[in-house]
Design a protein that fits this description.
Number of domains: 1
Low-confidence stretches: none
Helix content: under 10%
Distance between the termini: 65 Å
Radius of gyration: 22 Å
Structural class: mainly beta
Shape: globular
Number of strands: 37
Number of helices: 5
Largest sheet: 6 strands, antiparallel
Strand content: 35-45%
Bound molecules: (3R)-3-hydroxy-8'-apocarotenol, fe (iii) ion
């Protein structure tokens, strides 16, 4: 009898569904104010702006969108100065946002299944893309850019967050050309005499897919752009860099365009995960072909794309990559299966327990033998890995991530995790049961960590000497906090907790600039 009872009692969860759901309400108001409700003290050395992007509109005039990744991009800017902080949020005035807000209804299909009302007939053969500018935000070359991986960036005014329009990166992008939402800043590019450069990519999916790599100088001028083919359909959200390579995980998926064309599913929902197939890892050399590698100590380096195969499940995000002798090491969050949203279902009803957790794995690619070794680094459900900007593409010690409160199973992100890859030590700062975290942005202690506003490759202190900035949704008070943690020790009380006057819907990615 006791056993029977035990089997019917649901497991104790670290969250409650109703509380979690409220973090997906739209934030329709646009604010601008000095934050005055603060616990703790904002460090005076913390000077600059945390920009964050994410879906802010989860319904259009009451019509629910089908998946959060379909929500219109809303930017938050939290500016720190002299121990004070100012908050501002503003929607990106994309063509689709402006039209739908004026019409008061959904006018576009979303990639992740949002449909116009009227059933499949109203949606069939409408293959227009709504560039929703909702995934990341980057300050580079004097421009603030809201990124969405399937189309060109939107440029914003950094002071007011006013939308200035689509930006073709000074003629680099053609109209509608994709520019991914996961740029890396190489803090000391070997090809550019040690100057920082921005590296990003774009994917043109098809029967054979094209990966294009872009590198820009600190003024925003294009340095290098080259394209490479990879067989089969490619859905690649993120990548990683080392001094010599850009690394892509081509997830094992197939794309069936029919339900998309005939109006019953979004393009993203027409992608099927193929667990029986391996992941293809594509290494694209960053070095110009004209450059000689003869003198390089690593003889296995290549000037042509290299392909590896492994079993990696589905990967959205990479933490970092680096070169280690004849090996390329890459750390990535892997899912056993692609978490897909079924047509007709509501993401607010997500059964977390039924989904595979994202876990951090390390892959070692041997350039000589082509063997791939993989090791689990963190089994706790995690997402949104972040590393010290000086360590981008370099061997590193610490990774910071959003994580589940419980050590096992899939669950909402309610904690910030710090992993010491050298000692295996881990720390967890949890806000369960009523708190929900976002990506932790690591800001190295200022001002020595930045030169001319760009991350420097030299570490001024320890690799964890800095702060973690994260937005926490507090379901008990239905508002969000900006939390500043001391990255050296997550077991300490937060340095400061800044209470906003409202909530901020769960976001995607952000960046810090010392401006
Ligand atoms: O043919 C298709 C054309 C197309 C436009 C291929 C396609 C599906 C690749 C595509 C577009 C893809 C897009 C627009 C992808 C956008 C992704 C996005 C906005 C977000 C991804 C987020 C990933 C994760 C892992 C988020 C995790 C969130 C939590 C843990 C909860 O807060
Ligand atoms: Fe992402």
């Amino acid at each position: 009898q006791l056993n029977e009872r035990a089997a019917t009692v649901p497991p104790v969860l670290s969250y409650d569904r109703e509380g979690w759901q409220k973090g997906y309400n739209s934030l329709k108001e646009e604010y601008s104010y000095w934050i005055d409700d603060i616990e703790g003290t904002i460090p005076t050395e913390l000077h600059g702006t945390l920009f964050r992007n994410g879906p802010g509109m989860l319904d259009v005039n009451g019509q629910l969108i089908h998946h959060p990744f379909d929500g219109d991009g809303m930017i938050c800017a939290i500016a720190f100065d002299e121990g004070r902080a100012h908050f501002r949020n503003r929607f990106v005035r994309t063509e689709g946002y402006v039209a739908e807000q004026a019409a008061g209804r959904i006018l576009y299909r979303g990639v992740f299944g949002t449909q116009k009302s009227g059933g499949w007939l109203a949606n069939a053969f409408d293959v227009r893309l709504k560039n929703i500018a909702n995934t990341n935000i980057l300050y580079w070359g004097g421009k603030l850019l809201a990124l969405w991986e399937a189309a060109e960036p939107h440029r914003l005014d950094p002071a007011t967050l006013e939308t200035l329009g689509l930006d073709d990166l000074d003629g680099v992008l053609q109209s509608g050309e994709a520019f991914a939402a996961h740029p890396w800043i190489d803090p000391a590019c070997e090809q550019d005499g040690g100057a920082p450069c921005l590296v990003n990519f774009s994917i043109k999916p098809g029967l054979s897919s094209t990966i294009t790599l872009f590198e820009f100088d600190p003024g925003g001028k294009l340095l290098r752009k080259h394209s490479h083919a990879t067989p089969g359909f490619a859905f690649i959200h993120d990548f990683a860099i080392t001094p010599n390579y850009a690394i892509f995980f081509q997830n094992p998926v197939s794309f069936n365009p029919l339900p998309f064309l005939f109006g019953s599913r979004g393009a993203g929902e027409s992608i099927a995960f193929k667990p029986e197939k391996p992941t293809r890892i594509v290494l694209i050399p960053r070095k110009d072909k004209g450059l000689s590698l003869k003198d390089h100590p690593n003889s296995a380096l290549s000037l042509e794309p290299l392909f590896f195969e492994t079993n990696a499940g589905f990967v959205f995000h990479h933490a970092n990559a680096f070169e280690d002798g004849n090996e390329i090491v890459i750390d990535s969050v892997c899912y056993g299966t692609l978490p897909s949203v079924e047509a007709g279902s509501d993401f607010r009803q997500t059964d977390f327990e039924a989904l595979a957790p994202g876990q951090l794995w390390r892959f070692r690619l041997n350039l000589e033998t082509k063997a791939v070794q993989r090791d689990l680094l963190e089994s706790r459900c995690c997402e949104f890995p972040y590393v010290h900007p000086a360590k981008a593409g370099r061997s590193y010690r610490y990774v910071f991530m959003g994580a589940a409160h419980a050590p096992e199973g899939n669950a909402p992100l309610q904690a910030i995790a710090k992993l010491d890859l050298e000692t295996g030590d881990r720390q967890l700062w949890s806000v369960a049961p009523q708190g929900y975290v976002s990506e932790p942005v690591f800001v190295p202690r200022l001002p020595s960590a930045f030169k001319d506003g760009l991350p420097s490759a030299e570490l001024a202190g320890a690799e964890d000497d800095g702060w973690l900035l994260t937005l926490v949704y507090d379901a008990a008070h239905e508002r969000s906090d900006v939390v500043i943690l001391d990255a050296r020790d997550l077991h300490r009380e937060p340095v400061a907790r800044l209470h906003l006057k409202h909530h901020v819907p769960y976001g995607l990615h952000g960046s810090f600039t010392p401006h």
